[in-house]
Amino acid sequence: MLFNSVDFLLFFPVVTLLYFLLPHEIRWIWLLGASYYFYMCWNPKYALLMALSTGITYLSGLLIAGAEREGGEKRRVRLRKLWVALSFLSNLAILFFFKYWGFFWDNVEGTLGLAGIGLRRPAFDVMLPVGISFYTFQALSYTMDVYRGEVPAERNFFRYALFVSFFPQLVAGPIERSKNLLCQVRERHTFDANRARSGLLLMLWGYIQKMVIADRAAVVVNTVFDSYNQMPWWAILAGTVLFAVQIYCDFGGYSNLAIGAARVMGFRLMENFRQPYLSRSCGEFWRRWHISLSTWFRDCLYIPLGGNRKGKRRKYLNLLITFLASGLWHGASWNFVVWGGINGIYQIAGEVSRPAREKTWAALGLGRWKRLRGAVQVAVTFVLIDFAWLFFRAPSLLTALDILRHALTGGAAGAVSLGLAGPELRVMLLSIVVLIGVDLAGTRVQIPAKIMALPLPVRWIIYLAGIYAVLIFGMYGPGFSESQFIYFQF
């Protein structure tokens, strides 16, 4: 069930209404059933897979907590490490089988083929369950939180199952932490009109991001990347820049829809985006982009590897490993690994070159021009990040390299169609200007709070303008089925 489908527009009000009408003691049961129904709308049998991951991490939490009752400090530490390791290994094994099995065999066959050795792949294939990377990492974060003593082990299996399967953020995040969301399952949520209006306003902005901006940009992006060998260099550049817009509005829109929907029901989800394209460095970008995943890798991989505690060389190696793993998390293909590696190299190069860059600014006498310096840093960061997006968007590493070669050698000449007529292009450009304005304003004020403080007639003008923007300019209707969110494939 997609957020931008008619089914969800019926599902969400019914779930929310019954949630507040039911007694507090059984509301979580209703949400659990609704969340599993939401997930089963894609493929019912894969709900069993989510239940398996839930059961493994639930049992792991109990075993880790039970290890504290064992005699002897060394034995307690050894048992706790054993249970957390088994939790990670078993869940990652499930993720590997369903997401990376084909990728693994393709590389084994290719490597052995270079040596003249033929290998026949096992005669079965698997389908990638929607959202498996998200709910697996969310469940594993619970195991890690219990291991670190940040939350007690949850004794009620079904309440814990709701934490893993909570439908607003189930299939594409934010990847919640148990110390934030699990405790909210037991809270008594009363209907709050101001909170509901705030959540619905955030959902409205999410729909604008997705249906007006991202889906319109996707038409140009798909046209360019599907026919790149017939495109001039400027069209490839435009397609790559618009993909940066598309993926931000697509994924940021989903996150706003998830956070807004949860807020209507009284749940507080973590922020997932914070004006990432206004970042002044690649390191800052990754503190603003997909925050829930970045912090997960920081807490569960980078810090356990040693973080920055073992010298600069080890720190740089840990950064590179973390970003390579992040790339692989996004997709079972070498182009994602390369994309992650490029972003890791950006991080390392940024730290190594910082003293030289500071000297350059001082030598140019521009140290006092803070706004100019900031604008240059934002522009350079965007160019670097956008170059990396090319590898993310391309269907394979070889295709990404071929697109890059084609763009650098000039490409085809002459007029080309980008897939959108003149009026549609103007709507897209205007909506991007609005997006930039909202992000710039968001760095200074809390926009939802400001809107909520306006007089009632002014608020309704804004509400209706947003609704009409989706109805008039949104990409939907006959000939255009609701577009799946990009991150659903991860």
Describe this structure in words.
This protein is globular. The mean pLDDT is 88. The protein has 490 residues and is an all-alpha fold. The chain has 19 helices and no strands. The two termini are 16 Å apart. The protein folds into two domains: 29-110 and 130-187, no CATH class; 195-473, no CATH class. The protein has helices at 6-21, 24-40, 46-67, 73-114, 132-147, 157-165, 178-181, 193-226, 233-264, 282-288, 291-302, 312-330, 334-352, 354-363, 370-393, 397-408, 422-442, 447-452, 456-473. Helices cover 69% and strands 0% of the residues.
Detail the topology: elements first, then pairings:
Blueprint (H helix, E strand, L loop, with lengths): L5 H16 L2 H17 L5 H22 L5 H42 L17 H16 L9 H9 L12 H4 L11 H34 L6 H32 L17 H7 L2 H12 L9 H19 L3 H19 L1 H10 L6 H24 L3 H12 L13 H21 L4 H6 L3 H18 L17
